[in-house]
Amino acid sequence: MIKLENVTKVYPDGTEAVKDVSFEVEKGELCVLLGPSGCGKTTTMKMINRLIPISSGAIYLDGEDVTKVNENELRRNIGYAIQEIGLFPHMTVGQNIETVPVLKGWAKAKRRERARELLGLVRLDPDETLGKYPSELSGGQRQRVGLARALAADPPTLLMDEPFGAIDPITRVELQNEFLKIQQEITKTIVFVTHDIYEAIKMGDKIAMMRDGRLVQFGTPAELTYRPKDSFVEDFIGADRALKGLQLIRVKDVMDASPPTVRADEKAAAGEEGMRGKGVDWLAVIDENGRLTGWLSWLDSRREEMARDVMTPPQVVANESMVLNEALSMMLSANVMTLPVVDARNRLRGVLTFDDIRRGLSEASEGQET
Amino acid sequence: MLEAIVEAWQFVVRRPELVGQYTLAHMWLVFVAGAIALVLGVGSGIFISGRGRERLAEVALYIAEIMMTVPSLALFGLLMLILGGIGLKAIGFLPAVLALIVYGQLPVLRNTYTAIRQVDPALIEVGRGMGMTETQVLLRVKFPLALPVVMAGVRNSLVLLIGIATIAAFIGAGGLGVPIFRGLTNNRMDLIIVGGVTVSILALVIDGLMTVVQRLATPRGLKKR
Fold first, then answer.
1. Which of A51, A77, A91 lies closest to B125 in CB terms?
2. Taking CA atoms, what residue in B is nearest to A153?
């Protein structure tokens, strides 16, 4: 847990970079510091690990005043990731990742083992990547290594300063999704700095919106979108609120989690009842382990055949942590009305339809505006 | 002129041990002075690059540059006076090495300082942000990144010293300046050529060697591809 109490930063020349900021990040929560450049968001973040000394107020990390502990010890227990330039160019990927473990005096074998494990987590091949230098990697790969390095000593807390800033939009979305998936597993307490409203809405459990060193609004992405405190927040969020809403809602929140299914080794007709009950004209075909194997649009004439013989393979699949925006874009580009949702092992978790998306959006805006 | 070159060659063939002796003495002077200048230059370069020492760095670099403008003969003479004044040996190896150290440390000092100051501040902050102490930031981040430029300074320094060490013969420190001065006073063109050409060859060889060392000192990740 991170708690800021009336935190203020005044520079010797009198500039007030951060004024009286208070907020709290719960354990396992990702809090985005959002605002235009120069709003004090990075300064606020750097005061947490004391890279910038605080002028007045207090910051507590898991209940402990950060100014009361040794600053190097403090920092070794807070993961720190910045834009890709933050990798040491003279060190290999392995050496970069092992930086904090080395500082903490871990044994060599343990460090290597951990580096390999982390590269696997950020989906890079350890054998291929460990010995490479940052200059031999692509921008996206460097960001992944930066993330692995921040996680190296398994710190409970992470500070991330625009970690996906310097890469192309496609790779950025990919990395954001993967990071969200990783965060579901590791549940770190994270402070994440960005100026990108879409990234903030997508990544944040909470958003701290800042302007001119002050905290303007603190709340969930939905609160900021549907109940902006003032015109500044409203303008920053932008006019296209309905479309932003697509970013706010995750597939798992609106999908049908008990779609009609039929086993691949059954007759197609076996799914008929489930389909009728839902009032739809399709069936998801699964194997004995619940894995998605195909898709069946109802054909009266072939109902007595095995499901596996009449099904078509699914064109596109989504995962639960995707936001509606991405799911919708998949559906539009594949020209399908339904989107099966699977987990990492391809097990069917649910099905998303256009209707689900429309319903999700209207519920979100009604729920927030009342 | 051609005649003098032939005579110089004949001298080398006739007295190879003498030429070798001059060369060794010359190299020894450069080696001792260069090694001390390296340690002093890198050490003080690192020191003045520290936080809050900008003013000190300015002064130190200024002094070092002024020393470089003192003609070497004058500096040799000055050192003779000073050493003699405090009762030390005023001629020979000691004053020669001292003078060479003064000249040799500037390129090392300047390059070390500049290279360390030019390390990307974001990398230094990341080092601190991950919990490195100031010493660890210096040893693990700043110095490795500065090393190629520091080595370029060492290379400049050594080549410079090989030239200046010639004048050390003037205060009896030996080396390849001996045949040159002897040639000048006795009007022996061949001796001047023997000394001069050997100094040039020595400088080229050291320069080549240092190029290799510099390449080895460059971390693989920093090499241009």
1. A51
2. B130
Under DSSP, is residue A363 helix (H, G, I), strand (E, B) or coil? helix
Q: Nearest CA to A47 among A138, A159, A201?
A: A159
pTM of the model: 0.75
Measured between CA atoms, how close is B134 to chain A, in angstroms?
10
Cβ contact B181:B169 at 8 Å: yes
Interface predicted TM-score of the whole assembly (ipTM), two decimals: 0.80
Backbone angles phi and psi of B91, in degrees to 5: -125, 165
Locate the chain A residue with the closest alpha carbon to B126: A86
pLDDT in tens, A192-204: 999 888 889 889 9
User: Which residues in chain A are closer than 8 Å to B136, comparing Cβ atoms?
Assistant: 103
Q: Is B15 exposed, middle or buried (0-12, 13-18, 19+ CB in 10 A)?
A: middle
Comparing CA positions, the residue from A237, A239, A236 lying closest to residue A222 is A237
Calpha distance B15→B30 (Å, rounded): 23
Tell me how far apart the alpha carbons of residues A143 and A137 are, in angstroms, rounded to a whole number: 10
Residue whose token pair is 């009198």: A14
- Facing B131 at nearest CB: one of A92, A100, A133: A100
Among all chains, which residue has been given the structure tokens 């998949």?
A330
What is the per-residue pLDDT for A128?
A: 93
